[in-house]
UniProtKB/TrEMBL annotation:
Coiled coil: none
Record's compositionally biased regions (Polar residues): 356-365
SMART domains: HDc
Residues annotated as binding AMP: 91-95, 132, 239, 290
Transmembrane feature ranges: none
Biased composition (Basic and acidic residues): 345-354
Single GO molecular function: 3',5'-cyclic-AMP phosphodiesterase activity
UniProt-listed Enzyme Commission number(s): 3.1.4.53
Reaction catalysed by this enzyme: 3',5'-cyclic AMP + H2O = AMP + H(+)
UniProt name for this protein: 3',5'-cyclic-AMP phosphodiesterase
The PDEase domain, residue ranges: 15-335
Gene: LOC107656157
Pathway: Purine metabolism; 3',5'-cyclic AMP degradation; AMP from 3',5'-cyclic AMP: step 1/1
Family from the record: Belongs to the cyclic nucleotide phosphodiesterase family. PDE7 subfamily.
Length: 365
């Protein structure tokens, strides 16, 4: 790609005064679940990931605590933002900024805030900001069937996630952001373990482990390994929290992710490859894609998260999830009908994630 001019090292100061003021004003509410990342991205002239991450690292006191060099840090964040493909409708730097903002909301939840160390918080924020680095805008099956070099490199296993992680490590080494710290190796390893947890195809593994811990009530956040596991779950939630946002934000994400799926489907059609599930624009709608995603991926995950952290934020997220699903169902009457009437897989018909979430929520409170 052609060399791009790096944004100025102190980017807030080159913005129009008024936009700059509004962006700064928004950052005062960076912990709000209604935070409009799309507006923030426009106000920062497409630099939401740089500004948001820098602001959070600073607000948590991590820059001072870890003696991070300001020039190295800004260069690292700019390189991270530039490594995202802004031509991807969904997997771009705004998604990364959105996940980082959600992660911040989760890090402030009482159970985490009371137990996480500064090192955990640093890792959590960095993992969120880098978790989809250099995403090509197509999924792993596509990379495998087109014999992409990344699929061979990572032996068809968590191909994208491994690439996001190794890209992040590359930028950390290039900028020498942590080269003054004795924990540099540990940062790289833990960053990998967090980013690899975002592989949706391994969700059941993480979910059953989480469920077992909650059933046994044996999560001990004094243990580093348990805190790390909770960070993995928090990052997984942050990554797929779009359906738990207010409708106006949630709807935009749904449109973007479906656009990216359909784009992949169009490429597959053009090259006479088998069209991947959810990627055929003639067989799917935004609503049908969303309802399936919510039912089989998002609801089961958040049902467990609310058991772990039954707070006002969790109830707010479940509330939006229910309303958003109802809104999509109203736009797609057939799709919502079939999930009730056992046309879908029989094993799944018995599972009613939303009602289970509600009953669990009320048991806890
Ligand atoms: Zn992601």
């Amino acid at each position: 790609s052609p060399p791009q001019a790096l944004p100025h090292l102190n980017p807030l100061h080159i913005l129009d005064e008024d936009y700059c003021g509004q962006a700064k004003c928004m950052l005062e509410k960076v912990g709000s679940w209604n935070f409009d990342i799309f507006l923030f991205d426009r106000l920062t002239n497409g630099n939401s990931l740089v500004f948001l991450t820098f602001h959070l690292l600073n607000q948590y006191g991590l820059i001072e605590l870890f003696q991070l060099d300001m020039v190295k840090l800004r260069r690292f964040l700019v390189l991270v933002q530039e490594d995202y493909h802004n031509q991807n409708p969904y997997h771009n730097a705004v998604h990364a900024a959105d996940v980082t903002q959600a992660m911040h909301c989760y890090l402030r939840e009482p159970k985490l805030a009371q137990s996480l160390t500064s090192f955990d918080i640093l890792l959590g924020l960095l993992a969120a900001a880098t978790h989809d680095l250099d995403h090509p805008g197509v999924n792993q099956p596509f990379l495998i069937k087109t014999n992409h070099y990344l699929a061979a490199l990572y032996r068809n296993t968590s191909v994208l996630e491994n690439h996001h992680w190794r890209s992040a490590v590359g930028l950390l080494r290039e900028t020498e952001l942590f080269s003054h710290l004795p924990v540099e190796d540990s940062i790289e390893r833990q960053l990998g373990s967090l980013i690899l947890a975002t592989d949706i195809s391994r969700q059941n593994e993480y979910l059953s482990r989480f469920r077992t811990h909650l059933d046994e009530n044996d999560l001990c956040l004094g243990h580093a390994s348990h805190r790390h596991f909770v960070l993995q779950m928090a990052l997984k939630c942050a990554d797929i929290c779009n359906p738990c946002r207010p409708w106006e934000l949630s709807k935009q994400w749904s449109e973007k992710v479906t656009e990216e799926f359909f784009h992949q489907g169009d490429i597959e059609k053009k090259h006479k490859l088998e069209i991947s599930p959810l990627c055929d624009s003639e067989a799917n709608t935004i609503a049908s894609v969303q309802i399936g995603f919510m039912t089989y991926v998002v609801e089961p995950l958040f049902a467990e998260w609310v058991r772990f952290s039954d707070t006002r934020l969790s109830q707010t997220m479940l509330g939006h999830l229910g309303l958003n699903k109802a809104s999509w169902s109203a736009l797609e009457p057939e799709a919502s009908g079939s999930s009730e009437e056992g046309e879908s897989e029989p094993g799944r018909a018995t599972e009613e994630p939303s009602s289970r979430a509600l009953s669990q929520g009320s048991q806890e409170s």
